[in-house]
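From the pipeline queue, job 12 of 40. The input is one protein chain; the requested action is below.

Action: predict structure.
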Amino acid sequence: MHDDRTLVEARLERAMGQFVRPVRYGARVPLALSVWHVPGEPVPVDRALRAAYEPFTTGTAWGKPWSTSWFRLEGRVPEEWAGHRVEAVIDPGFTGDGPGFQAEGLLYDASGVPLKGVHPRNRHLTLGAPASGGEPVRLLLEAAANPAVLHGFTPTRLGDVLTAGDRPVYRFRSADLAVLDEAVWRLELDVEVLSELMHELPMDRPRRHEILRALEDMLDALDLHDVPGTAAQARAALTDVLSRPASASAHRVFATGHAHIDSAWLWPLRETVRKASRTFANVTALAADYPELVFSCSQAQQYAWVKEHQPHIWERIKKAVRDGNWAPVGSMWVESDANMPGGEALARQLVHGKRFFAEELGVETEEVWLPDSFGYTAAFPQLAKLAGIRWFLTQKLSWNQSNKMPHHTFWWEGLDGTRVFTHFPPVDTYNSQLHGRELAHAERNFADKGRATGSLVPFGWGDGGGGPTREMLEKARRLRSLEGSPTVEVVKPSAFFAAAEEEYGGQAPVWSGELYLELHRATYTTQAKTKQGNRRSEHALREAELWCATAAVRNPSYTYPHDDLDRLWKTVLLHQFHDILPGSSIAWVHREARETYARVLTEIEELTAGAVAALGSGGPTVLNASPYQRTEVVGDALVTVPGLGAAALTDNSSEETARAQQDGDTILLENSRLRVTVDANGLLSSVHDLHADREVLCGPGNLLQLHPDHPNAWDAWDIDRHYRRRHTDLTDVESVELVESGPLRSAVRVTRVFGKSRITQEIGLAAGSRRVDIVTDVDWQESEKVLKAAFPVDVHAERSAAEIQFGHVHRPTHANTSWDAARFEICAHRWLRVAEEGYGVAVLNDSTYGHDVTRTPYEGGLGTTVRLTLLRAPHSPDPETDLGTHRFTYALLPGGDVVHAVAEGLALNLPLRVAGAPVVEPLVRVDHPAVTVESVKLAEDRSGDVVVRLYESRGGRARARLTPGFPVARAEVTDLLERPQRETDLGFELRPFQILTLRLRPE
């Protein structure tokens, strides 16, 4: 046989594109349009029902950026269409080929009941299947003029309603009643499934050629001038090749409907409320036609929004859950960033997420569902297990720049040794179309074949695309068992995980430690004020809960503010979403985040002040929200305050001092622990540890370094390795002056001007302190630069230890392997420490997360340089990222061990509080320094029980006892959700990094 394959394929392509797809809809009649342009922010449908509308014609421009227009669509189904499937087909001006990221709409009936979303690849609303003919049609379309913001990372002002302008961004193309020719539509789907499969099969496979010839027979049977009349005959030519079953060894695809909806990104939070509503309306409508549909949906916050704003859709969701068409997944309040949220915050993501799904929908979720977050902390497996979670899903690791993950189904071993069964779908997308190319890639790419036989494929358009479509479900039906293709079954994720664990769990490999994403490393730094707001809010909530719980136990008339704390926590958790906290959203999102954090901190401070006042009068008293005893300078006194307790603010009677001395251009700061020398350039030329009698630095410390910052793509997200090739040391100074010289504090103020920016730093040493604090004020006006602060320390460190949630993780300081080299920018929370045997140095911070650690040869040997990444200035998607004034503090902590780093990191982030209050006994005490109390609060069930969460922080075993400062009737160990597991006498032994939650019932 002659090889005419390419000719047949070209014939097929033209026939489908020119003759078949254009006649999917037969007869059409336009709907009459009228419009009301909302004069501000979106309004509920009842307001739109009362509005005054004006005539509108297709072809008219509409929608200034971020505005909303309500369109009335009116008409009547022609009588002659009786017996046909009639649909409203709407195109408000969709642009490009994308499934979303542009205009969207939600259709309502004439009484205001939401029906279905309208999206670029899901434009229809079925009105009659079949229609009776003559039915009146009256619809409302809420159309959102969301601009397309991301165009190759070119800076744009469209990302904020305040700067986007008034020029309309869309032109309304059409709104018609149309007859869907089901025979033509089904022929399209038959051909798509077969053609896509054919192109994935090897040339030497007979099956490929069988499909080709069947498609050729189909073309012969199809009259291109009468496609509707011959579509059924053409379909018959494909019956045989479509009916051949898959082989017994075919890869098994467990497909689940999905719509990854970012809670904010290239749109503000308020728009996500509507995006979720549109998609959820689509899914519940789709389930009526496709009872096999299972839609997997995470993020309790989005459910809560829909419950509040769209009660009709909420009721449909509850029915879909009962009917098995809807699977709540994820167990979290939002799909948060998985690197930067603090330990307690990450726990609360799970607590609030699981509680919502259980209380509102009666579902105990069993998986963490984070397909798109930018790397995953090694604390997750333990947290998951403590929350009653069995499984973990991610997809983002397929974006790695350098190294391919060796497994797709594996046990992920966390920091403490806990393992969770994990799947990383080999399809390499969470927005599958069930395209033949995707399914073939999943099969070829699956790293665990031979032992495991199946993988998960989430399908559906996300981020405003509307979720799964009927075309995807039709494909799934055809692909259920089709020779040459993986089999496809639409299931709940739990069905996949249970089957995969049963089949492969006993043999699956183990990945130990963090799941580091080799991309998007700048998200540890970008949008500094968002990150600072998160850090401040986490610690403020920690303090508020402690003193509110203390007040509730000590003062029976005090009412613990459950509702306020719940609301504030959920606000903070929302802003930990993986495009808000990482700094990768548009300007509008981060402007609102800054405003929200300011409001949150004000409210938390009011709660804390009220709780402290409820403790009684007295003072002045110093209160310490850290679990570690602290001796610090407060005003003119050096005060020692117990952990989680209080002490009187009294005059200083200590012999501890902090002295200062100026000798020419050099300034010397000294206390009983450290001698710090600041040179004429304002740099730390020496830090001498007096207790260890050794020099800490092997080069100038607190050296600010400015690098060009031009990543290849993903400006807000990425810092690429080549940034290191050039930098400027900021050694020029405007002034260096001694501003404080004792007796309890000494400080030097250094001012520098560079580019268009100005930075003032106060380098301070307090009496008795282990650390050198550097309080920094920056007026940052740079463009596409990154600012780092370098500390070259005279420590030969093979690895660094970086604080993460409930512990710390070690990373090599070398780049021996491609995996090591890829970690050229790393995440740390309050501290990062490098050490050699017998001695270590930590760098602390109060708001940043980005760091890098490198080996530093110098004349005396090999040192280690720790750098904090302070500020960036990318232009996309926010063209003015981080411009303006910033204030933050970081510190150098010489000597001491991990426990000291933990304690000082907490001290830097939890300032002592001075109030007119009595000296109260700590609510709880722990007798082991490596056991760190993470939170003290009242139980979520409002029983009045006190809940204490703690963990082993040094990385070793710890035998300890918790001593309550109040009579306890009953003490229990609980899971993360405070559900009792067993009684305890409050003595316990913890393994390395183990988390323990205790519940105490006051007598």
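Job complete. The first strand starts at residue 25 and ends at 30.
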